[in-house]
Amino acid sequence: MVTVMKFGGTSVGNGDRIRNVAKIVVNKTNEDKDVVVVTSAMTQVTNSLVEISAQALDVRDIAKINNFIEDLRRKHEIAIEQAIENHEIRVEVSKTIESSINELEKVLVGVSYLGELTPKSKDFILSFGERLSAPILSGAIRDMGKHSLYLAGRDAGIITDDNFTCAKVLRLEVSEKIKPLLKDGFIPVVTGFVAGTEDGHITTLGRGGSDYSAALVGLGLTADMVEIWTDVSGVLSADPRMVENVKQIPKMSYIEAMELAYFGAKVLHPRTMEPVMEKKIPLRIKNTFEPENEGTLITDSSETSNGIIKAITTIKDVILINIFGGGMVGVSGTAARIFNVLGKSNANVILITQGSSETNISIVIYDGELEAKKCVRELRDEFGECHLIKDITFDKEVCVVSVVGSGMKGAKGIAGKLFEAVSESGANIKMIAQGSSETNISFVINEDKLEPCLKTLHKTFVEDEINF
């Protein structure tokens, strides 16, 4: 049995936590024959690499780079001392870390002197987070008597194109690279988020890249299970910071998990589901700090429950753009032109709806006011002289709420009950959309009504489990 175990940044946040992860991994090898580990960078390291690379370009302050390097070196030296007891292993890992940090320092100084930060060099810099944590975790596993080595994403067989910062996977050679190691009794520790091109240049897989890496490794090995270890015990029915009496969801389908992840659930990235879905590999979300908790199991089928809505999630920091105009009626290609403008503006579209009268198109995009103003400006430039569109407005005081559950499919009256509950909370729906899978209904409300809306929906559909 092959299990891929991915550990997030909070799980490997310091040396003590890295040692705890090593214990979990070693215990797992007593249950399953073959284990492959995928690790994120230590807490906040990737964010700090993003910041220092920008500062190296804009400020060009060598003293700041030196201070950053010393802080990074100290952070990882302390982690090595906490995670590894054996002196020889500790010295060996320290040399590896020191070599990597020296390499990083040279690159940052080069960016500062040249005044240039290309996507290729940015990927190289950001890769150091995982390239620093993986040797320490591998060393901690060896410290507990197991054979282990660490692999960068390209060395593990994840080969991508050269679309740096968000590379696309071209080919997987995971089986050829990792199976011989498993056969020889090694526990490979793979850098999450990091991959490489055909000719060996380092790439990164973008947002959610570490979870995605684990799923790719699972796909390449046709694993029996992929486990995502984080700081929560699986998927919850709502955000516990805003809703009381949330429930842990023991089991859900791939589609439900994708919908939740896409619409704001932070525990999982939607791209993670695609590789495991391809070969129907079960995926389990577990809590590193409560390993005895079974967490949430995600499979091809969903667990039957009395309620039809399994979870409620939300996305903040969005903009609602409304496009009005009677001239759009019966005119083909208008939506294509709108999306072309949004694409050129690099807008990330979450939702889109069009009224049956064809006089209104509403779009929700990510990011802040500046991005929305740019989109509005470019849309007005596109349609300014053709009289198709009368007005374009945007509203940034909104959020998206999504209710998810496979039980909604074919359920009569769900929309009526849903809107009744939203009305009861005092919120007003500005836009609504339902996916073709019928496992999700999403709508836009004012952000100041979010908390009462979530509480009312959760009480109605999850706690009281309304039946239809």
Automatic annotation (TrEMBL):
Residues 323-406 form the ACT domain. It comes from Methanococcus maripaludis. Its EC number is 2.7.2.4. GO terms for biological process: homoserine biosynthetic process; lysine biosynthetic process via diaminopimelate; threonine biosynthetic process. Pathway: Amino-acid biosynthesis; L-lysine biosynthesis via DAP pathway; (S)-tetrahydrodipicolinate from L-aspartate: step 1/4; Amino-acid biosynthesis; L-threonine biosynthesis; L-threonine from L-aspartate: step 1/5; Amino-acid biosynthesis; L-methionine biosynthesis via de novo pathway; L-homoserine from L-aspartate: step 1/3. Belongs to the aspartokinase family. It catalyses: L-aspartate + ATP = 4-phospho-L-aspartate + ADP. GO terms for cellular component: cytosol. Keywords: Amino-acid biosynthesis, ATP-binding, Kinase, Nucleotide-binding, Repeat, Threonine biosynthesis, Transferase. It holds the Pfam family AA_kinase. The keyword Cytoplasm does not apply. One of its GO terms (molecular function) is aspartate kinase activity. This is Aspartokinase.
